[in-house]
């Protein structure tokens, strides 16, 4: 899961020490990178071109000529494009309303968007199956009951259905990007237009819009990237409808007997596409990582919506109903019902789902695995990220920019592609890790490193180097300064890094689904298994448990950092 | 109390030479200001002296110890220096007392750290000196900008450093506080007598606080001297224009003390001009203004010129004139007292009391 890395950067003057103690650090870093990224990707590339008699392009040829596979490619493009467009259509207006106008209940809306951000998309997909499945879907039943019609109103098992669900959990990325940009723009530019007679809408379209255009495009690209890499939602909604996307196709190729070379050949174009898109996004935003805007910055005054206040609020709440209220509601209902499709009467209520789920040995093992892996990955990941971020921030070694780049590079690799690479690399000597939890650990560590690194990076950017220099000139050595001055100031940031990584691991599916074995299941995989058995009650229970753990970590992080996941400070101002 | 000697310092960032051959001698107990526009290399120089940067070439000596050279840099913690940063760099997670007392724990090259029992006493005493008595248990976040600054000063002074470095410490304060703190810092310097390097871009601050001012231009010292020397006798064009206002006139040196430009002929006192092109710098207040009718006849020792007032701007404590010399198109700025004011169009006589020749 690639999180948007919007951090506001303060340029710091160069403090290069010129002391080259690089050798041990580079050896460790190189070994880590080799293990995590280069080895899997190298094997991936190699296997995609290896055949019976040596190097061949036969696999690629099949990928691009096989009609089935071509269809999967096309479906992926359609899904990515339209879900990104829909995310834009939802996220941009909501961002504008929250950041620029006097919309009521802004804090609530913001909190709900954040909840949508941390909700695992595949849980949302499950919930929407229960809401809008053609036969037993709750909304369809309501519709049939009210209108007496035979045919369902909604069928979630379609491409539009998939696009809809994907957009519901991707739009927060667009929202974050645009909100952060809007908060940098002073109101005077818009007020200048208003004074000249432009209406609110006209001002929004002709003044605000062009200034946030880079952020909008960037958010669009980011949404496309998310959609490309998703596995859970397509697997839940597309497969029953009879079509594939690239990710589900790769997964299908892995089912017994695994056609690994084909999977590799399929993965490489996906990887290249993601790399290209990220490159484009970086170009759009320039070096600073957020959209640069004109004007001097300054006071932001709210635009009065007038008669549009209530309708705007209703619209926002309607979106959040689709993303949060309805899905969470149906999950809660299913968790406590004997038969989730039946109405919630007293004899339907049961705690049986809970006992069934938590008393099952395999589920217990999976929960333990998930929590173990979450804690381990978070500890190692936070430690590594902190070390790397400190080294690059204080420019301690030559070539620190390369280290930073490598720490962020995994964001380019979709989960399934990473899994394929890891599978290939670690099912052969000397590292036979497949079948153990270690291969999952490696997958999670690689995948979450970019998020961990950018949070640590932001932490150290917030600690002015002069704070450390002041200690040194007073007589404290480097290590003492680190322990007495830097560490206490970085503590809450490091814990936030830990939480980010932990949350990412808990909800990870696309890599886990290819790397698990019967003994090494994690929660997300178990939920997926339960789908095969139609155990919606158990799915709901586990899903709610997963959400509870996630929200606990989020609350912890929020309390520590004093700001929410989306990066806002809960101060007055824009509310 | 040792002095600081910077010899031939050079430091590059990429292909930009931040410091390009800088030589500076700071006498023991002296306060020297490094003054210059942004990009002139003053902060880089300070950071090399502090030990945070290594020189590309050149050396930094303190007393008889060489602290920095391209080969070795003694780390900052062993230099026995104190530094006050532009951002104050107070540690937000420590109280004022913990901030100020931090450096007292460490032993420095032969001098042992202060035992705990004495530390508190020293901290309290220093806080009293900077007029923050009673603030020991506050946190930096609870203090105003001026108070934070004084804590930073206390923290640097309490360890009795041999050398004190200040990096634009007043630039984050508002104007009135800045004026007050200038005198505070000067008072502290006179009390403790520590050899000090003070970086600033504000010339009036430099002139009030320091014993001597070194004006930096593009990584080198353009001129070093007392405020009076710099003001009255600037040696380069840059210094003449950077410090205060000036009139710069290009012309020729006829003899060792005569400046000629067209019909304009001036006597330059205490000058040793080589015949050839030269630029003259005349400060607006170095010209006396009087009505043309009362002008003394031009005689040896007097530079009297006739001119007409173009514009007069009343500034409250002075009047800023623009006058055009008769017989030419030269326009000079003159500062006159408010007691005797002239209006545009008045015929006046200028007496040039002082001027200096600057390098082209």
Describe this structure in words.
Helices cover 70% and strands 1% of the residues of chain A. Chain A has 575 residues and is mainly alpha-helical. Chain A has a domain at 66-350: Orthogonal Bundle (MetI-like fold), CATH 1.10.3720.10. In chain A, strands 1-2 form a two-stranded antiparallel sheet. Chain A has a two-stranded antiparallel ribbon with strand order 3-4. The longest helix of chain A is centred in the first third of the chain and has 34 residues, at 67-100. The model of chain A is unreliable at 1-20 and 568-575 (pLDDT under 50). Chain B contains eight helices and 20 strands. In chain B, β1 (4-13) and β2 form a beta hairpin. The longest helix of chain B is centred in the middle third of the chain and has 18 residues, at 175-192. Classes of the chains: A mainly alpha (575), B alpha+beta (360). Chains A and B meet through α19 and α20 of A and β6 of B.
Describe how the helices and strands are arranged.
The complex is a heterodimer of chains A (575) and B (360).
Chain A (H helix, E strand, L loop, with lengths): L21 H27 L1 E2 L2 E2 L2 H8 L1 H34 L5 H13 L2 H12 L5 H10 L11 H24 L5 H8 L4 H30 L2 H6 L8 H9 L5 H26 L23 H28 L15 H8 L1 H33 L6 H9 L6 H12 E2 L2 E2 L4 H25 L3 H9 L4 H29 L5 H4 L7 H11 L2 H26 L14
Antiparallel strand pairs in A: 1-2, 3-4
Helix pairs in contact in A: 1-12, 1-17, 2-12, 3-7, 3-9, 4-7, 4-13, 5-7, 5-13, 5-23, 7-9, 8-9, 9-12, 11-12, 12-17, 13-23, 14-23, 15-16, 15-18, 15-20, 17-18, 18-20, 19-20, 20-23, 22-23
Chain B lengths: L3 E10 L2 E11 L4 E5 L6 H9 L6 E6 L2 E4 L12 E4 L11 H6 L14 H14 L15 H13 L5 E5 L7 H18 L2 E6 L2 H7 L2 E6 L2 E6 L1 H6 L4 H6 L4 E9 L2 E4 L2 E4 L8 E7 L4 E5 L12 E11 L4 E7 L5 E6 L10 E6 L3 E3 L2
Helix pairs in contact in B: 3-4
């Amino acid at each position: 899961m690639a999180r948007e890395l919007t951090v506001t950067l303060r340029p710091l003057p160069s403090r290069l020490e010129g002391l080259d103690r690089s050798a041990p650090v580079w050896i460790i870093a190189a070994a880590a990178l080799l293990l995590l990224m280069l080895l899997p990707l190298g094997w991936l590339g190699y296997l995609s071109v290896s055949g019976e008699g040596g190097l061949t392009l036969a696999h690629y040829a099949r990928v691009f000529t096989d009609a089935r596979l071509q269809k999967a490619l096309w479906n992926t493009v359609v899904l990515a494009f339209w879900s990104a467009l829909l995310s834009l259509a939802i996220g941009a207006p909501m961002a504008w309303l929250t950041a620029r106008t006097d919309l009521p209940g802004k804090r609530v809306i913001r909190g709900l968007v954040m909840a949508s951000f941390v909700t695992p998309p595949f849980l949302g997909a499950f919930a929407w199956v229960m809401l809008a499945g053609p036969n037993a879907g709750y909304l369809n039943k309501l519709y049939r009951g009210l209108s007496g019609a035979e045919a369902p109103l909604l069928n979630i098992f379609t491409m539009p259905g998939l696009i809809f669900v994907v957009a519901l959990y991707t739009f927060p990325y667009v929202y974050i990007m645009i909100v952060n940009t809007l908060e940098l723009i002073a109101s005077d530019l818009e007020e200048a237009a208003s004074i000249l007679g432009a209406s609110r809408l006209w001002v929004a379209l002709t003044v605000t819009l062009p200034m946030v255009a880079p952020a909008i495009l960037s958010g669009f690209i980011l949404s496309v990237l998310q959609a490309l890499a998703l596995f859970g939602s397509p697997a839940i909604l597309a497969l029953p409808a009879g079509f594939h996307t690239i990710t589900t196709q790769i997964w299908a190729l892995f089912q017994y007997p695994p056609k690994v070379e084909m999977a590799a050949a399929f993965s490489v174009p996906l990887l290249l596409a993601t790399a290209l898109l990220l490159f484009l996004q970086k170009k759009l935003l320039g070096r600073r990582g957020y959209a640069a805007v004109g004007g001097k910055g300054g006071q932001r005054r709210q635009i009065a919506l007038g008669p549009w206040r209530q309708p705007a609020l209703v619209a926002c709440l309607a979106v959040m109903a689709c993303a949060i209220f309805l899905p969470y509601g149906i999950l809660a209902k299913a968790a406590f019902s004997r038969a989730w499709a039946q109405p919630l009467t007293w004899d339907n209520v049961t705690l049986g789902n809970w006992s069934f789920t938590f008393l099952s040995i395999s589920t217990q093992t999976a929960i333990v695995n998930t929590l173990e892996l979450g804690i381990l990955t978070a500890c190692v990941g936070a430690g590594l990220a902190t070390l790397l971020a400190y080294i690059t921030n204080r420019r301690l070694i030559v070539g620190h920019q390369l280290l930073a780049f490598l720490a962020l590079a995994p964001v380019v690799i979709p989960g399934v592609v990473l899994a394929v690479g890891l599978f290939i690399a670690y099912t052969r000597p000397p590292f036979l890790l497949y079948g153990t939890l270690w291969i999952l650990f490696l997958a999670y560590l690689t995948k979450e490193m970019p998020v961990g690194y950018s949070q640590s990076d932001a932490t150290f950017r917030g600690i002015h180097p002069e704070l450390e220099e002041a200690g040194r000139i007073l007589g404290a050595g480097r290590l003492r300064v680190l322990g007495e001055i830097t560490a206490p100031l970085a503590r809450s940031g490091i814990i936030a890094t830990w939480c980010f990584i932990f949350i990412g691991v808990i909800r990870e599916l696309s890599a886990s689904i290819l790397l698990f074995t019967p003994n090494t299941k994690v929660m997300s995989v178990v939920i997926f298994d339960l789908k095969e058995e139609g155990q919606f009650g158990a799915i709901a229970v586990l899903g709610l448990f997963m959400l509870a753990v996630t929200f606990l970590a989020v609350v912890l992080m929020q309390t520590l950092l004093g700001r929410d996941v989306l990066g806002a400070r809960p101060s007055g101002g824009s509310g | 109390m040792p002095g600081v000697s910077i010899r031939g310092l050079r430091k590059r960032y990429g292909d930009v030479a931040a410091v390009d051959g800088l030589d500076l001698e700071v006498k023991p107990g002296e306060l020297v200001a490094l003054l210059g526009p942004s990009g002139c290399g003053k902060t880089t120089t300070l950071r090399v002296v502090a030990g945070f940067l290594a020189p590309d070439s050149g050396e930094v000596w303190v007393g008889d110890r060489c602290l920095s050279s391209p080969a070795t840099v003694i780390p900052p913690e062993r230099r026995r220096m104190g530094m006050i940063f532009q951002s104050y760099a107070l540690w937000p997670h420590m109280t004022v007392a913990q901030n100020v007392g931090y450096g007292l724990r460490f032993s420095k090259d032969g001098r042992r750290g202060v035992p705990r029992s004495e530390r508190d006493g020293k901290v309290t005493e220093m806080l009293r000196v900077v007029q923050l008595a009673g603030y020991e248990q506050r946190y930096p976040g609870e203090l105003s900008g001026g108070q934070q600054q004084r804590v930073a000063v206390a923290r640097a002074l309490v360890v009795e450093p041999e050398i004190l470095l200040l990096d634009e410490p007043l630039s984050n304060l508002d104007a009135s506080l800045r004026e007050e703190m200038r005198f505070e810092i000067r008072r502290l310097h006179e009390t403790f007598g520590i050899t000090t390097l003070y970086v600033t871009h504000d010339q009036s601050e430099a002139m009030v606080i320091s014993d001597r001012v070194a004006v930096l231009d593009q990584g080198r010292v353009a001129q070093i001297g007392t405020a009076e020397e710099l003001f009255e006798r600037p040696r380069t064009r840059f210094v003449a224009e950077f410090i205060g206002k000036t009139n710069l006139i290009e012309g020729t040196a006829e003899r060792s003390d005569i400046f000629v430009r067209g019909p304009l002929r001036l006597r330059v006192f205490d000058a040793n001009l080589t015949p050839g092109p030269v630029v003259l710098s005349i400060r607006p207040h170095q010209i006396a203004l009087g009505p043309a009718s009362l002008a003394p006849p031009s005689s040896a020792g007097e530079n009297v010129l006739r001119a007409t007032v173009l514009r007069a701007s009343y500034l409250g404590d002075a009047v800023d004139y623009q006058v055009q010399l008769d017989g030419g198109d030269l326009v000079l700025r003159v500062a006159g007292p408010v007691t005797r004011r002239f209006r545009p169009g008045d015929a006046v006589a200028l007496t040039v009391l002082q001027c200096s020749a600057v390098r082209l």
